Amino acid sequence: MNEFLSGMAAALCLVAGLFFLRFWKKTRDRFFAFFAASFWLMALHRMVNLYMRDNNENLVGVYAIRLVAFVLILVAIIDKNRAAPRK
User: Fold this and answer.
1) Dist. CA 73–CA 59, nearest whole Å
2) CA 9 from centre of chain
3) What is the rounded CA–CA span in Å between residue 87 and residue 73?
4) Where are the beta strands (DSSP E) in the chain?
5) Does residue 23 have a pLDDT over 90?
6) Which of 16, 47, 63, 83 has its CA 20 to 30 A from that of 54?
């Protein structure tokens, strides 16, 4: 059951990334590109964590993927707020 839920969460992260990619294509705003990349990294984290669950030695690397995803979200927020105002 846990594997099913992890798979569902990974699939939903991929779909959310596709939505943000579509918004990026419409607006060319980097904010949406960062969010798309972040959600795809979260999907990758779910899938890698699912397959490497029994190998505890590499869990730090798996969670590093998640850390990068959250850092991308922070970078997107900071980049959006530091951007010059549009005229």
Assistant:
1) 22
2) 12
3) 26
4) none
5) yes
6) 16
| CA-CA-CA-CA torsion sign (11, 17, 19, 25) | negative
H-helix or E-strand spanning residue 17: helix 2-27
pLDDT confidence of residue 75 = 95
Q: How many residues does the chain have?
A: 87
Computed on alpha carbons and rounded to an integer, the radius of gyration of the chain in Å comes to 15
The token duo for 50 is 């699912």
CA 77 to chain centre: 14
**Contact residues for 11 (Cβ-Cβ < 8 A; gap 6+):** 43
Q: What is the pTM of this model?
A: 0.84
